């Protein structure tokens, strides 16, 4: 007897459909030499110095937290290429919607370090974007910033500007309804927004395979008929190239796109978290020896004759001076007052004490 | 025949909402209307009738279902310079968007120290009494009144529906605008022509009286009016306040009236526990304690889930229940 069954299409092809795209491997070798000419030595040095600055700042924040000079802090070490590479793809009039772990992106896009420190010190001034920049305050409720980016992108198109929105989110965020609602809205409205996912393997303690059965986040794009790509998130060149292409496509009316940047969080979720409870940190350490996003750029810069110990020291000296100035700015902020509580709750507060 | 001033027009409450929306979209090309079925269909209650034909699909937008997504998008639109007016089809369906409203719309101004703001209006039909299906009849205004950063308006007349909606549009902060669906077509009245906003935060004195202050809003105002007429027949002179806005709340109007009458009955459709009526009782204690001749009474919906339609007449406050409370405070 002939076996009959309805023609289901099987799942499970995400990795085949969205292979990991990288331009520079862990040894600092181009995977496709044609791309090498697209990146000038100046650009590579700039990208590297942004990453170095981001890493130095992150470590300073961890130490400030341990000294009790700022509050609970969410480190991003390991994700510098993903954040710097993507933020460098934006133009000055574009929007950036960060989460609490995306201050490397925000600082690359122009957010002053002092203001980022004020945020982690629990001060409202930390949510003020730098003059002329459209940076939302970091979103804490997971995935809620994605619809905001869709709305801002809608507004830019409505007002006939060339500006686009770039929104950051992690792997855990893809389980939230707002992720799906935002992708659907963006797809239906065809607005200029780029969804930039950093898949760092963990949502606090929950690994990706408990978050989703699918092997990739990029494949979610298919459900909304969006272009999607999965890139090596520790390869600043691939991250930049993919984001730049998506941003310029959106800018020219091509609509939204989804980028999955596969990366790794070397440290804890926050300073209140101990990752040893849920993962083998030696595994993380081994991974970083190979995959550290800064190392492969150093190797390329070395070959270009733009990097050595002396250059690195020179750059770090400048970075450290900037960070120390930011710390001084944070610590010299005037004390908070009760009136601050009421300021800006409404345009005109009905409840402020007389 | 000509007249310099356009005459008042008689219209329904939903017609007044519709007129306000037409005026807003006509006046401000950055104003847009979005929600489920608001475009081609003109809204399930026809509140957005004619807008799509007149202003086009770019400004009158049928959204996908997904209240969190489109309310969240409206927050982004507002921060980027548009003036979105969002329709939630029924208040009972707003809950997926609750996080966007309380965690973002209400806080973006303070979180960015005024650099971004969210001048949106979220309209929602609310309340029971029209034999609607399950979950279509909630009256959970207290959730939003409780949340700093939001304003909440609840009209009870066509004139206020139009005027308060114009004021909500003009307001630089997010306004939850609750439309009593049982009054959509049953409330008819004169509506001033043209751009005639009614300021947020001011109660309306529906009738003056000497003996007892009855305080109501939205769909409970006609119930309280009928109770007041019944009380008058029994020789009790009711002063009736329609609050119109629940945040900001017109504390002075409440205090002034209770100072005069010494008695208060608050009527709300919502559940009793931690409803707005309880807060009004607290205000009366703060502002008019020594003027009171009797403890204030609340007439509320019961502390049960808003029931299926077969029970809704049992659930809702009625003129008889309000009158009973009025008699009680008069005896007190």
Fold and architecture overview:
The complex is a heterodimer of chains A (354) and B (332). Chain A is α/β, with parallel strands linked by helices and 354 residues long. Chain A has a single domain, classed as Thiamin diphosphate (ThDP)-binding fold, Pyr/PP domains (Rossmann fold, 3-Layer(aba) Sandwich). In chain A, 43% of the residues lie in helices and 9% in strands. In chain A, strands 2-1-3-4-8-7 form a 6-stranded parallel beta sheet, sandwiched between helices. A two-stranded antiparallel sheet of chain A has the order 5-6. In chain A, strand 7, helix 10 (236-251) and strand 8 (257-262) form a beta-alpha-beta unit. Chain A is globular, with a radius of gyration of 21 Å. The termini of chain A are far apart. The mean pLDDT of chain A is 95. Chain B has 332 residues and is an alpha/beta fold. Chain B folds into 2 domains: 9-191, Thiamin diphosphate (ThDP)-binding fold, Pyr/PP domains (Rossmann fold), CATH 3.40.50.970; 204-331, Rossmann fold. Helices cover 36% and strands 20% of the residues of chain B. Chain B is globular and about 60 Å long. Chain B starts with 8 loop residues before the first strand and ends with a helix. The model of chain B has no long low-confidence stretch (mean pLDDT 96). Classes of the chains: A alpha/beta (354), B alpha/beta (332). At the A-B interface, helix 6 and helix 7 of A face helix 3, helix 4 and helix 5 of B.
Provide a concise account of the structure shown.
The complex is a heterodimer of chains A (354) and B (332). Chain A has helices at residues 14-17, 41-66, 80-87, 103-108, 113-120, 145-158, 177-189, 208-211, 220-223, 236-251, 281-291, 293-303, 309-331, 338-342; strands at 95-97, 134-135, 165-170, 193-199, 202-203, 206-207, 228-232, 257-262. Chain A is α/β, with parallel strands linked by helices and 354 residues long.
